[in-house]
Design goal:
Blueprint (H helix, E strand, L loop, with lengths): L1 H31 L11 H9 L3 H25 L6 H20 L4 H23 L2
Length: 135
Amino acid sequence: MRGIRRGVGSVLAGLVAGFVVITCVEAVGSSVYPPPAALDFTDSESVNAYVTHLPLGACLFVLAAWGAGCLLGSWLATRLAAGRRPRPGVIVGVILLAAGVVNMLMLPHPAWFWVAAFVVFPVFTYLGTRLGASP
C-alpha cells in the first residue's frame, strides 16, 4: 500500500511541476509574442483566427514549454518513485501528451505542429525518466 501511495504521489508531484513549468514558459512566450489588445478570449472565432496566424516563434515557445514540462515532470516523478522506476515518469508524460492533444484539438494548429508535438512529448518524457533514474 505504501508503494502505491508513493507512486501516486510521485505522479501528482510530477504533474504539478510539469504544468507549472508549462505555464511559466508559455507566459514568457506570451510576453515576447503578446496577443492583440482587442482580442476577445471569450469569442472562439477570434481566438481561432489569432492562433491560426501565430508567428513561428510563438509556436516554438509552446513546444519548448511542453518539452520542458515533460522533462521536469517525468524527471521528478521518476526521482520520487520507489526504486526510481520510470513508470510514474511515463505516466506523467502520457497525461501531459493527452493534455497537449486536447489543446491541439481545441485550437487550430498547423500540421507541422502536430508532428512536432508527437516528437517533443515522447522524447522529453524519455529523457526525463532516464535522468530521473540515474544515480
